[in-house]
Design goal:
By secondary structure, the protein is of the alpha+beta class. It has one domain: Trefoil (Acidic Fibroblast Growth Factor, subunit A). Helix content is 15%, strand content 26%. Strands 1, 2, 3, 4, 5, 6, 7, 8, 9, 10, 11, 12, 13 and 14 form a 14-stranded antiparallel β-sheet that branches. The radius of gyration is 19 Å and the shape is globular. InterPro entries: CF161 (IPR055325). It holds the Pfam family CFAP161.
């Protein structure tokens, strides 16, 4: 008994108790993060942003309870949290109802082609999406790869999206203008912040999506599956499942541009 007590006290003093490890993980993932302010209305390399899947009429019509804005976030399975001291790669992602910027749902826009921090990201230009989950390091990168017999999204069985600790061709993304008829015209123009865009995985040419009808379980509860799949309507135009808003901070206060009331 005394040995067990000594072991317990030693682990507690070192912060090695499971309860302490989980507490630290949770503290970092839910820590408030300051988003970047867009000075000129565009997103730039080095910006800290949220990726938001905007509320849509079709989500209200088709999926009860699945309406509302959702943000892309680190998904921690309940099993893995009990064995992890910090985040481990590969790691899952999901869409969550939290629209306040915290460790688990904020991403840094990374240059993969030698562009400098502060330069605007342009439509058609490759970029990376990195997150530390609120920790100081390491950084994990949003990635995807072609579906295979062993690699697919658990619920939809479509192309999986995940976080990895290696930058490669699997972690390159690009933004496309929402209206396909104007897409070519806007190619090379700076990508506006806080506006709907399509985000496409460069290697597989499939777009980031939240179908909203597939649930996934995480340590934080029930969340939505995020996949790479281009949903096209009868006019060959992307559906709102593929819409994303790259959210920056509201320069006037501590909120985000999503909280800002529409001008009257």
């Amino acid at each position: 008994k005394q040995d067990r007590m000594r072991d317990f006290i030693r682990k507690r003093d070192r912060g090695e108790l499971l309860m302490q490890k989980i507490g630290r993980l949770e503290e970092n993932l839910l820590k408030k993060i300051k988003l970047s302010v867009s000075k000129d209305g565009f997103i730039c390399f080095g910006d800290t942003v949220m990726l938001l899947s905007p509320d849509s009429e079709s989500s209200v019509d088709n999926y009860t309870g699945a309406c509302g804005n959702l943000t892309l976030a680190i998904n921690l399975e309940e099993i893995s949290i009990y064995s992890a001291v910090s985040l481990q790669a590969p790691c899952g992602v999901s869409a969550v109802k939290t629209i306040d910027p915290v460790g688990r749902n904020t991403f840094c826009l990374l240059s993969v082609d030698g562009s400098s921090v502060g330069e605007p990201i342009r439509f058609g230009q490759k970029f990376g999406l990195g997150t530390t989950g609120g920790f100081s390091d390491p950084m994990f990168y949003l990635a995807s790869d072609h579906k295979s017999f062993i690699r697919f999204a658990k619920k939809s069985h479509l192309q999986q999206v995940f976080l990895t600790d290696e930058l490669s061709y699997l972690t390159c993304w690009q933004a496309a203008f929402l209206d396909p008829q104007l897409r070519l015209e806007y190619e090379g123009s700076p990508v506006p912040a806080n506006s709907k865009v399509i985000i496409t995985h460069c290697h597989t040419n499939r777009s980031l999506a939240v179908p909203r009808n597939f649930w996934t379980r995480s340590y934080f509860g029930r969340e939505y599956e995020v996949i790479c799949h281009t949903y096209l309507d009868s006019h060959r135009v992307e559906e709102d499942k593929n819409y994303w808003v790259i959210v920056t901070a509201n320069p006037g206060d501590n909120g985000t541009m999503i909280d800002r009331p529409d001008p009257q």
